[in-house]
Amino acid sequence: MNRQIRQLAVGLMACYVVLFVALNYWQVGRKQELDARFDNTRQVLREFNKPRGPIVTADGVVAAVSFPTLPGEPYDYRREYPTSNLLADITGYYTFAFGSTQVERLYGDVLTGSTTEQQVRGLGDLLTGGTSSTGTVELAVRKDAQEAAQFLLGGRTGSITVIEPTTGAIRAMYSNPTYDPNTFVNADFDVAQQAITDLQNAEGNPLLAQAYQERYMPGSTFKVITTGISLEAGIDPTTAFPNEREWVPPQTDDPIQNYNGSLCGGDFPTVFARSCNIPFAKLATLLGPEAMVAGVGAWGIGEELPIDLPRPAASTFGNTENLAQELPLLAIRGFGQSEVQMVPLHMAMVAGTVANGGLMMKPYAVEATYDQAGRVLDRTTPEVWKTPLSPTNAAIETQFMIGVAERGTASCCIGLEGGIPVAAKTGTAQLDDPSNPDLSHAWIIAFAPADDPQYAVSVVLTNVQSTADVAATGGRLAGPLAKGMLDFLLTGPGSQPVSATIPPVTPPPMAPPTPNTPAADG
Amino acid sequence: MTGIDVTTFASDEETHPVDSPLARSRRSTELTLVVMAALITGAAYTITALGTNAEVPPGIVFFVAILLGLLLCAHVMIRLVARGADGTLLPLAALLHGIGFVMITRLDDELAGLQATWSLIAIGAFVATLLIVQRATDLARYSWLFFFGGAFLLLLPLAPGLGANINGARIWVSLGPINFQPGEFAKIALAIFFASYLATRRELIAASTWKVGPFHLPEPRYIAPIIMAWGFAVVVMVFQRDLGSSLLFFTLFVVMMWVATERLGYLLLGTVLFGAAAYFSWTRFGHVQTRVDIWLDPWEDPLDRGYQIIQSLYGLADGGLTGTGLGRGNPGQVPEAQNDFIFSSIGEEWGLIGASAVLMAFILIVGAGLRTALRTDRTFEKLLAVGLTTIVGIQGFIIIGGVIKVVPLTGITLPFVSYGGSSLVANYVLLALLIRLSDSSARRLGELPDDPTPSERWKAWRLSRRLRREDHKAVA
Questions:
Q1: A189 touching chain B per CB within 8 A
Q2: Which of B230, B236, B227 is nearest to B155 (CA)?
Q3: Checking DSSP bridges between strand A62-68 and strand A158-163, what pairing results, if any?
């Protein structure tokens, strides 16, 4: 019998050798292929089950935070957005099956602590008693400013963007329609899929951060750029333009009119303040296609905005291929109609450029990132993106824009509290919708104080309807919003910002708070 | 063999009243290894908790203390009543049990609590088995009891009202709140019966005096129980839908027949018979076809029938060579990860290295069991050691092979590792029997004195008292 027992030993041994070989086949041989299969969710899931650090606003309010779930739930953590829809455009959302957006997407590795630096630091902390390596993202955006923007828009579609001209820091960037990530991030697959599909199909695409991911016809606010290009090209800022109702540009018989077909003219500051169209059509034609195209390029038009958030839009001057043969189009684009489209954030940057002595700063939404112990990983340093204006011309154009606020198209609506000087430019972009000729975008860009600029703001109300009584102009409609925003920040409750002095400490607390209430005000 | 040099001078027990150094060293080896197994388990428990919750488990000292206490209890019992036994069996089982427990804790806290209770009961059963079965040969005396007991247990789940269908297999018995799988115990009982039956009749069966055409077969009356055993395997396969257990029973019978009769024909015959039964059920039963289909190509139905095995393979691939790290993978993606698929969880988080360690532990248990079979000179003990070892070895192979797509997946537990009370208790009983056999072989080889057991002393004392009384009577 011993012979059989030895043979049995060999046989059983062989069985286990087969298992060992098979194990090598799956775990080493086909590892790459299996890992890459589309229905293999292991890697995503591992990412998803990691603790994830919070996103905090510049004034110390938690905008996104993770809590450990109770046992038995499908994922180890649930992500909550205590500010509901207020900062959705900035934080974005973070889902298991449908990816992530905005800060959640771009700073995912910092939030989960997977950057090399965090990993190395985490090793040391494990020995000294630290446990988690999640990071924190601190936004440049302020929750109070964001709330003011939401309040001022009051449900109307459009956006309000506030930047610091000298740094490019985005202090507010709110747009309607928006969404509340809490409604689907922790939901079951089917529920989440339905919610996201609904949002994608909803009018105005709420999932999009319109303020930096969408572009609109800028109307007369574009004249700030045409003026800037003209000044840089050496046009005399005191040039006088005749008072006229119509002007026929070259290559056509079709005349260009001023807004409402009015009679408009005067010296350069006056036509700027009154927002006559014909002078700017003339300027664009005078400069010619080449200089205009190069000029708008110097203002960053045609390039994606260099923001630290994913998928920014690029402003456009329209098709420029045959512009020399289509001078009427060039003339019309000179005052911001036709194919010109600007990103709202870009318009805030345009105001900021004039305010900042001609330097256009790179806009940023994230102020700094911190590791689990609150040590700074990275702090955003302000950078110049474009230099479209000389300081002299910036000063001249500031005076132009002050004129708009004091005696021009914005004079009705933008006088600031305490008489703080303000510079502005309005815009009413007529959409020329044949079925609805009175539909337009109402714009205003502004900065204040004009003598020491702290904030530049762009406001756009999209698809507004003029009525018989009220013309839907930028000054009248958007102006009060810019005023409200600047008042809030300069003299109102927002003038003494609460800064997040202590970098937020890593969560998570053990129990989630009631949904939709700010977790850590102040 | 290791015993040879000892046997040459150990022919007479009286000249060596003390244990040989070899036998004594086994116990200290065992103690060292048991402590190591406990420490490995404790370390894995801590690391897993760090990996999942990023904190050191609060009860870690308590946990290791209890674990060490249980294992030392088992170790001390071996020292007391089986001190000549192989020193690797208990530590290997403890290591597998520990790894399994860590994975179960990681997968489901609630089950971990139950498994802890079952671990306590299992160690109790281990100690009790060692105490009750002090002479391996005693088991042979109750062979028919084991036969009927085993058959009863095996068929119990089919009883209406008692049996329960869980996950498609009718192998459970529900008594109030307690569910258990009697089949886990039946396999031990039937192994004992077979060892005993074959030990006494192996020459008769091997003689093959019955001629049927060109074949020489054993006398029908000698092979009748074996045919019945085959019948059991078929019953298990057809009525309980438990392919794994069926394959296990059948392999057990065939291997024992082969070893006992020393005739390869039985191995071939058994393979052919099982193949025929398997083919028949494949053609007739949907659940068998399903198992085979998903084995051949799980990606044909990746979201339903193939989901479990595909997730298992993804988990293994994700683990790779070194694993995702304890507590850092997602073994919960595999349905039933704590039962049948515990091995893929280990492969995912501990990597190829950790999974290979588990394979090696099984090979070493098989090695220790078969070494016992080789060393002993009593046929019954030889066959029983073969049977018990085959159970552990083949069961491990069937289920590990199932989750890594080497053989069709059949739902049985991975001995010592999987969650499950019946499985754990039964396997510790099996381990105790192997240890008893191992100790017995050491005593037969004279490595330590073959002291009478307490019950033998008791009987001897009663016998001597009776003899004395009879002497008195005779004198009177």
A1: no
A2: B236
A3: unpaired
Question: By three-state DSSP, how is residue A462 classified?
Answer: strand
Instruction: Return the SS3 of A479.
Output: helix
pLDDT string in tens for chain B (476-residue length): 444 444 444 444 444 467 788 888 888 999 999 999 999 999 998 888 877 766 777 778 888 888 899 999 999 999 888 888 888 999 999 999 999 999 988 888 788 888 888 899 999 999 999 988 888 888 888 888 998 898 888 888 877 767 777 666 667 777 666 677 888 888 899 899 989 988 888 877 777 777 777 777 777 777 776 677 777 777 777 777 777 888 888 888 889 888 988 888 778 877 888 788 778 878 887 777 888 888 888 888 777 778 888 888 888 888 888 888 888 777 877 777 777 888 999 998 898 999 999 999 999 999 999 999 998 888 899 999 999 999 999 999 999 998 898 988 887 889 999 888 888 999 999 999 999 999 988 888 888 887 788 788 888 899 999 999 988 888 76
Residue boundaries of the structural domains of chain B: 19-448
Shortest CA gap A44–chain B (Å): 10
Class of domain A213-366+383-495: alpha beta
Tokens found for residue B117 = 């209770």
User: Residue B314 and residue A40: Cβ atoms within 8 Å?
Assistant: yes
Q: Give ∠ CA A144-A149-A154 in degrees, rounded to 5.
A: 125
CA distance B37 to chain A (A): 22
Apex CA A120: angle with CA A117 and CA A123, to 5°? 145
Domain boundaries, chain A: 213-366+383-495
Residue A304, SS3 per DSSP: strand
Nearest to B406 among A1, A19, A40 (CB): A19
Cα-based torsion angle of the residue sequence B459, B462, B466, B468 in order, rounded to the nearest 10 degrees: 110
Quote ipTM for the complex: 0.88
CB contact under 8 Å between B109 and A71, yes or no, is yes
Interface membership of A16 toward B (CB under 8 Å): yes
Residue A303 makes CB contacts below 8 A (sequence gap 6+) with A297, A314
Q: Is A420 exposed, middle or buried (0-12, 13-18, 19+ CB in 10 A)?
A: middle
Partner B contacted by A8 (CB < 8 A): yes
Pairing of strands A136-139, A55-56: parallel
Return the residue matching tokens 């606010």. Answer: A221
User: Are B324 and A46 within 8 A, CB to CB?
Assistant: yes
Contact A23 B356 (CB under 8 A): yes
Which residue in the set B52, B359, B374 is minimally distant from A16, CB to CB? Answer: B359
Chain A nearest-CA distance from B91, in A, is 20
Could you tell me where the beta strands, DSSP code E, fall in A52-206? 55-56, 62-68, 77-80, 136-139, 158-163, 170-176
Q: What is the pTM of this model?
A: 0.64
Reference A175, options A422, A458, A505, A430; nearest CA is A458
Chain A residues within an 8 Å CB radius of B359:
16, 19-20, 23
Distance from CA of A30 to the nearest CA of B (A): 7
Residue A458 annotated in active site: no
